[in-house]
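Saturday, quiet lab. Running sequence design on the structure tokens for the scaffold JK sent over.
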């Protein structure tokens, strides 16, 4: 679990990568099944880098003014929203839905005003945030 951090001005905001452990089998462990939530990732070279990392839940984070929001290994998929639908309050109204991340580069619309963008935020060919937040995560009470 990586949660509740403010990460600014680094080459990499958050970086998960493979861990090689050499013994008789020469095993390699990958960064899988992590939860990354409620972090402010602001003004970094790369907001999040996931090297051979998959099946990580990444949600309710704020990716703001990073040069590149995410760098991912080809062919690895991660989940860019909450693992289950959450009850949340946005602009004084209560909703139930999955919650993704806030991306300052997101240009989508929110036609029903539930705080979730109508179109996914495409990260790469294997990863997209299907529930991008229209405002920073602090505007959503869960």
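Result came back. Writing it out in full:
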């Amino acid at each position: 679990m990586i949660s509740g951090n403010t990460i600014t001005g680094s080459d990499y905001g958050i970086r998960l990568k493979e861990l090689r452990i050499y013994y008789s089998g020469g095993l390699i462990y990958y960064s899988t099944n992590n939860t990354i939530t409620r972090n402010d990732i602001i003004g970094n070279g790369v907001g999040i880098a996931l090297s051979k990392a998959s099946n990580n839940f990444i949600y309710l984070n704020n990716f703001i003014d990073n040069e590149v929001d995410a760098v991912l290994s080809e062919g690895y998929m991660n989940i860019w929203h909450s693992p289950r639908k959450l009850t949340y309050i946005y602009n004084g109204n209560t909703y139930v839905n999955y919650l993704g991340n806030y991306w300052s580069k997101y240009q989508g619309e929110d036609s029903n005003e539930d705080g979730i963008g109508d179109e996914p935020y495409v990260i790469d060919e294997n990863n997209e945030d299907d529930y991008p937040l229209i405002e920073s995560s602090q505007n959503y009470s869960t």
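Notes for JK: The mean pLDDT is 92. Residues 2-135 form one domain. Ask whether to fix the surface positions before the next round.
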